[in-house]
Give the backbone structure.
Amino acid sequence: MKKLQLLMLLLCFVGSFSLVAQIDTFQFDTDEQQQRFRRLSDELRCPMCQNTNLTGSTGGVAEDLRREVHRMIIEGWTDAEIEQFMFDRYGDFIFYRPRLRAETVLLWFGPLIFLLIGAWMAFGILRKARIVDQAELDLDPTQQQQLQDLLEKMNPH
Amino acid sequence: MSRLKLFVPVIGFFALALLLWRGLYLNTRELPSVLIDKPLPQFEIETVLGSQLVTNQDLPDKIFLLNVWGSYCLPCLVEHPTLMRLSEAGEIPVVGVNYRDRQKLAIDWLDVNGNPFSFSLLDEDGRLGIDLGVYGAPETFLIDRNGVIRYRHVSVLDENIWREIFEPAIAELRAEQVGL
């Protein structure tokens, strides 16, 4: 039990160390600017590490891009302008939420298309199953007679 | 007809499997550049050697390579002999972008390994790198006579890549510009 407690204590430290590692010391004039910075860094993807956002990345280019985002916020750029700046240099890849364009339509609606195909197939299978069930329920006259006989045998009265 | 319909799921499965199979072998590191066919960004930057201020006006007025490098970058050493050969043979001018490096380390690196660059732009804070959509050294851009980016190669430019990709691309650019 003691060992477990010690382990948990150690794990707490591991967590806090990795959090500390990513924090830049950017100064903002207002809380609103800080929130915008956090949102943008969360939604922009690090082009080098690919599976992390700017907030979570220690990559060199992510560091530079965070600095640029900070500079642009301080200089009064709007979010749309900052996103356009990134798009002009890194393309769709920079966004975790890519823009809706001809090239990204499949990315946006592909899953929906697969869902519809799946739903259509499931519906077809269910419908067929229902038809089969119904056919099994309908007895022909001989079967009907057999059933009647059985019931009478069980209930002689 | 209904016989054929039975095969639809199988065909669908194989189509999807083929697509995903192909996906396994795509190079996800090589992001398509949005800067192809766009002019090089404007800059006014110091050179690594001599700290001279240079702008777009100082770039070669013919087809050239813009190579992103750094003294910390091991793959840059791998492509270094190719760049040396190209510039020494006068095959094509190579301009360097010294990306996220320190000037002193860059100068030492050029001293030790040799300098294939007409000049190198000192991009210590990676600001020019951002304008070029760079995400790590080495990267090589092929720039045409009008200063427009025509091709971008991510990672090592060795003799094979040079022969198979750059030579045909350059021949195409030359033909195009003769035609003008």
In short: The helical segments of chain A are 2-20, 31-43, 60-74, 79-90, 105-137, 141-154. Chain A has six helices and no strands. The first helix of chain A runs from residue 2 to 20.
